[in-house]
Specification:
The chain is α/β, with parallel strands linked by helices. It is built from eight helices and twelve strands. The protein has two domains: 125 residues, Periplasmic binding protein-like II (D-Maltodextrin-Binding Protein, domain 2); 100 residues, Periplasmic binding protein-like II (D-Maltodextrin-Binding Protein, domain 2). 34% of the residues lie in helices and 23% in strands. The strands form two sheets. Strands 1, 4, 5, 6, 7, 8, 9, 10, 11 and 12 form a ten-stranded mixed beta sheet that branches. It has a two-stranded antiparallel sheet with strand order 2-3. Keywords: Signal. This is Solute-binding protein family 3/N-terminal domain-containing protein. It comes from Pseudoalteromonas rubra. InterPro entries: Solute-binding_3/MltF_N (IPR001638).
Length: 273
């Protein structure tokens, strides 16, 4: 009799536990790429991080964000150790293992940087950079134009780095002549290193690339992905999206091209596009 009662109690406890399932925590991964995402004093921070936080707050979905080297981050989400990744560009290869939220997370601008002392000849075509040593980041996509140029060997000497900061350190050491990088991220690195007077943006090149949040195909997160898409649209419509962007971008909006096309005067000339 006692055994039967204990058995009934165990069944009831199991049923109660099953009726209140633990809510899944979505594990997101990104890279160290100021000002979009970076490790702050109180955890991950940055423009893209704040946008993601607002989206997940509104859909009431628990989440964590971790920062890893980009190549590792992509591998980890591909095999399903992480649920999602941002800010990531779309490429045919990535579409094989990622389900992208169709709504744009943030648009990024790719630019070229060099030392002011360098006499870089660039006529607007990437093949004019063929003679120069070019730094790019490992596993980072720069959009179809530059990705195709890299794949076809347009640049004769390519140096791969793990971070944008490392690319600029190689530039300062005269180990490369050109750095290919996200423009806003470059301005942040230049400011951190205090090299505004040494480094210049190569004029006549800007390439806009949409970046997204995407989810591992191994994790079955279609519902979450669709909620993220819808909520991104909502925060853009109600003004929250622009408010977050402007809060981070306000001092960058005053930046002009820092490329010095007049060595005699030392004055920077504004780039027009």
């Amino acid at each position: 009799m006692i055994i039967r009662r204990l058995f009934h109690v165990l069944i009831m406890l199991c049923l109660l536990g099953a009726s209140v399932p633990e809510e899944r925590v979505i594990k997101l991964v990104t890279l160290e790429y100021p000002p979009y995402e970076f490790q702050g004093k109180n955890g991950p921070s940055g423009i893209a991080v704040e946008l993601v936080r607002e989206v997940f707050r509104r859909i009431e979905q628990p989440y964590i964000i971790e920062i890893l080297p980009w190549g590792r981050a992509i591998r980890e989400v591909e095999i399903g150790r992480y649920d999602g990744i941002f800010t990531i560009y779309k490429t045919p290869q990535r579409l094989t293992f990622l389900d992208y939220a169709d709504e744009l997370l943030i648009e990024q601008s790719i630019a070229l940087f060099t030392l002011r002392k360098n006499n870089i000849h660039f006529d607007g075509r990437l093949n004019s950079l063929a003679p120069y040593r070019v730094a790019v980041m490992h596993k980072v996509s720069y959009g179809s134009e530059i990705d195709t140029a890299l794949k076809r060997g347009v640049f004769e000497n390519v140096v791969t780095t793990d971070t944008g900061k490392k690319s600029f350190e190689l530039l300062l050491a005269d180990r490369v002549e050109v750095v290919v990088i996200n423009r806003l991220g470059a301005l942040e690195i230049i400011k951190q290193l205090g090299i505004e007077d040494l480094v210049a943006e190569v004029p006549s090149y800007r390439y806009e690339i949409p970046s997204y949040i995407a989810f591992s195909k191994t994790r079955t997160l279609d519902k979450t992905r669709m909620e993220v898409e819808q909520t991104l649209r909502e925060i853009k419509k109600d003004g929250t999206y622009d408010k977050i962007l402007q809060e981070y971008l306000k001092h960058y909006n005053k930046e002009q091209s820092i490329y010095d096309t007049s060595p005699q005067t030392g004055k920077a000339v504004e780039e027009r596009s």
